[in-house]
Specification:
The protein has 11 helices and 10 strands. It has helices at 39-42, 50-71, 91-108, 117-127, 169-179, 186-194, 219-230, 244-272, 288-301, 310-313, 318-329; strands spanning 8-13, 18-25, 29-37, 81-87, 112-116, 137-142, 147-154, 157-163, 277-281, 304-307. A hairpin with a 4-residue loop joins β1 and β2 (18-25). α2 (50-71) runs parallel beside α3 and α4 crosses α11 (318-329). The radius of gyration is 20 Å and the shape is globular. The structure holds 5'-O-[(R)-(carboxyoxy)(hydroxy)phosphoryl]adenosine and zinc ion. 5'-O-[(R)-(carboxyoxy)(hydroxy)phosphoryl]adenosine binds at residues 16, 143-145, 170, 173-174, 185-188, 191, 282-284, 286-287, 314-315.
Length: 343
């Protein structure tokens, strides 16, 4: 490789239950992106079982990397660097991808780059065709494990300005889906069912916390849904007494309550930091109602909105390899004894 060769970085993602590898060129062009979902392994437990996740990562990681290299029609030796997520996430899951990255980097004699999973989610918007993300921006990252607001000043400068104090938004979607006996993972199922429901049917509480807080709380809404579904029969274990229309109304009303707060606080963060650019990423960013509401609101507030493409919202390694390009340029590399961190 010489100074004029395009910089192709191998990215690895294994922070939760997706095993993913990708090749991204110059922090912009996705050459290949392979994602192996573990949904079917965790479905019967209605949540990610950490031991099952790390075992599945271990079985798949080398095959997924090989496939990403093959689809990119290149040799492993030709990557400029190897990047992997080292935080936040499930420690056992992170360890598999990060150790694999260390091993590839060491054996190839290439630099190792560590990447923060939430920062990578924001970068999904940069990789989305048609977007021209300008800095400074505010990034709203909503996933199964996190609900965070960042002031994103340059590609590598992230300052967290808000976060959930309890459950992540995706967790609330998944748990409400369980209450409604919908398939796992719950987010996409609620999104679909809510299209047939009336979002004004039930007035679930909007949790704003203190007036000026940019933090979130998504645990109360779950309980509000549970109590609504049970009605006054506290021993009623499930939602089987509800009609399909009732369930759709609950889904739509729940979704509206979560989305209203996410949208308000994201816009509030833009105003507070005098920023005109808003970025949306993370698994819950695939939600149709969130995307529609944020688009309308940003139009009326004259905020430039860059959303991650739906395919780029849920966990993938392209966002990892893309962000890593900026660390590569800054020569911010990681030692081979670098550690993974859960938070
Ligand atoms: O970012 P992600 O793939 O993994 C984590 O980093 O957590 O996010 C997964 C979360 C799950 O909770 C899933 O239910 C939710 O994203 N999700 C959605 C939608 N698609 C995925 N939530 C709402 N609407 C969707 N369409
Ligand atoms: Zn994620």
């Amino acid at each position: 490789m010489n100074g004029t060769d395009p910089v192709r970085i191998l990215g690895i993602e294994s922070s939760c239950d997706e095993t993913a590898a990708a090749i991204v060129e110059g922090g912009r062009s996705v050459i290949s992106s392979v994602v192996a979902s573990q949904d079917s392994l965790h479905a019967k437990f209605r949540g990610v079982v950490p031991e099952i996740a790390s075992r599945a990562h271990l079985e798949r990681i080398n095959l997924i990397v090989a496939e990403a290299i093959e689809r990119a029609r290149m040799q492993l030796e030709d990557v400029a660097a190897v990047a992997a997520v080292n935080k936040p996430g499930l420690v056992g899951s992170l360890l598999i991808g990060f150790t694999a990255a260390k091993t590839y980097a060491w054996s190839l004699g290439k630099p190792l780059i560590d990447i923060n999973h939430l920062n990578a989610h924001a970068y999904g918007a940069v990789l989305t065709e048609g977007n021209h993300v300008k800095f400074p921006a505010v990034a709203l990252i909503v996933s199964g494990g996190h609900t965070s607001l960042f002031l994103w000043k340059t590609p590598l400068d992230f300052q967290q300005v808000g976060k959930t104090q309890d459950d992540a938004a995706g967790e609330a979607f998944d748990k409400v889906a369980t209450i409604l006996a919908l398939p796992y993972p719950g987010g996409p199922a609620i999104d679909k069912l809510a299209k047939d429901g009336n979002a004004r049917a039930i007035r679930f509480p909007r949790t704003y916390l203190d007036k000026n807080s940019l933090n979130f709380s998504n645990s109360g809404i779950k309980t509000a849904v549970l109590y609504h579904v049970r009605g006054n029969k506290l021993d009623r274990p499930d939602s089987s007494h509800l009609s399909q229309q009732d369930k759709a109304d609950v889904a739509a009303s729940f979704q509206a309550a979560v989305v209203d707060v996410l949208v308000d606080k994201a816009v509030q963060a833009c105003r507070r930091y005098d920023v005109q650019n808003l970025v949306l990423g993370g698994g819950v960013a695939a939600n149709s109602h969130l995307r529609d509401t944020l688009t309308e609101r940003c139009d009326s507030e004259q905020i430039a909105l860059s959303m991650s493409d739906r395919s780029m919202c849920t966990d993938n390694a392209a966002m990892v390899a893309g962000l890593a390009f900026h660390k590569f340029q800054a020569r911010t590399f990681t030692q081979l004894d670098g550690q993974v961190v859960s938070t």
